[in-house]
């Protein structure tokens, strides 16, 4: 079985996004011996690029499964183009308005009603509403991806595991979405404070060596509830493990690691991993990286590949230099899109003429605080 993974370049200025295509199966054989997946679509523009990329390199106008990992527009917006312009079999996507009744008891305010919750998310999450609308119009089946559903056997040599969220974890996150009643006041000052603190820290620098790490475990609430609702996927393809993390933070990644452990899967043995949330230091720390990537190794002993979706001008936040260093210490060769696409593939993937080898990021001796 062959496979190939494409991370398209998404984002302008400092804003990043995700647009990922995946093909696996008998890549030299007919289309019915292959599967094509799309995991997030970035912006409308990158959605168009995804469509063109799949038609050009995968030579098909059909996508078996489209995954919307979470409702942020830098991930979901471009998927509307994919749904509209391609034949799609299944849409994996959470439908938050379907959970209003189940999360009512999580609010102390008795005036909060299921219909009020449903109206809030319906009004706030327009990108995923649009995906649902298109899917219903085109007869595309929608399935909510939860770890409770067990694994999916994609073929004799391919499995898919949804490692996070469980339905319980998802509902806890949903109750803390920005559009929810108790989140409105709490989050009003957050962007302003973040901007002020960012300016203060802009000039701060720290020195690192291979064995001296300055990355620390972030606070549990450092990542938004929306990001922690991200779908975390593990593909097992003919002995290779590929982990896709979207914008998951430490709580979601811990949930994923716990699920993998229950399944008897050691995430430290993955050959490919997506760096969460464009390489933000708010999403990972040493403790969770030791669980999902592995312990610190001897210098430059790389045994896996890590891709990070980051805009051309995303640094110092996307990717954070100390996050890049942390993945490298644990055996991951790190590559960033930064204005260009990335391609990860098995030995039997078809050649692409005009493509050249990507250059991995180098270890940083000086990192931003």
UniProtKB/TrEMBL annotation:
InterPro entries in the record: Competence_DNA_uptake, RibonucZ/Hydroxyglut_hydro
Gene3D superfamilies (alphabetical): Ribonuclease Z/Hydroxyacylglutathione hydrolase-like (3.60.15.10)
The residues that cross the membrane are none
Question: Can you say what this protein is called?
Answer: Metallo-beta-lactamase family protein
């Amino acid at each position: 079985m062959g496979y190939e993974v494409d991370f398209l370049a998404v984002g302008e200025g400092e804003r990043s996004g995700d647009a990922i295509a995946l093909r696996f199966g008998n890549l030299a054989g007919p289309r019915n011996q292959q599967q094509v997946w799309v995991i997030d679509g970035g912006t409308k523009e990158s959605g168009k690029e995804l469509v063109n990329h799949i038609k050009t390199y995968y030579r098909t106008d059909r996508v078996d499964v489209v995954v919307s990992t979470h409702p942020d527009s830098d991930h979901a917006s471009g998927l509307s183009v994919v749904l509209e312009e391609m034949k799609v079999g299944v849409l994996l996507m959470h439908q938050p308005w379907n959970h209003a009744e189940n999360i009512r008891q999580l609010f102390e305010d008795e005036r909060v009603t299921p219909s009020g919750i449903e109206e809030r998310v319906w009004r706030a999450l327009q990108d995923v509403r649009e995906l649902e609308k298109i899917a219903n119009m085109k007869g595309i089946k929608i399935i909510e991806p939860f770890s409770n559903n067990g694994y999916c056997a994609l073929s004799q040599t391919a499995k898919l595991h949804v490692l996070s969220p469980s339905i319980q974890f998802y509902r806890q996150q949903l109750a803390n979405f920005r559009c929810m009643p108790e989140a409105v006041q709490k989050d009003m000052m957050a962007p302003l404070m973040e901007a002020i603190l960012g300016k203060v820290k802009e000039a701060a620098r720290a020195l690192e060596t291979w064995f001296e790490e300055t990355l620390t475990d972030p606070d549990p609430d450092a990542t938004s509830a929306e990001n922690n609702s991200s779908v975390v996927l593990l593909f097992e393809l003919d002995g290779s493990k590929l982990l896709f993390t979207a914008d998951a933070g430490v709580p979601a990644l811990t949930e994923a690691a716990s699920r993998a452990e229950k399944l008897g899967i050691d995430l430290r043995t993955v050959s490919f991993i997506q760096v969460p949330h464009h390489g933000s230091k708010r999403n990972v720390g040493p403790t969770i990286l030791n669980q999902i990537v592995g312990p610190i190794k001897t210098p430059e002993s790389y045994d896996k590949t890590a891709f990070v979706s980051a805009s051309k001008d995303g640094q110092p936040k996307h990717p954070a230099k100390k996050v890049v260093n942390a993945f490298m210490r644990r055996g991951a060769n790190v590559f960033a899109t930064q204005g260009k696409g990335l391609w990860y593939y098995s030995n039997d993937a078809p050649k692409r003429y005009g493509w050249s080898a990507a250059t991995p990021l180098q270890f940083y001796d000086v990192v931003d605080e």
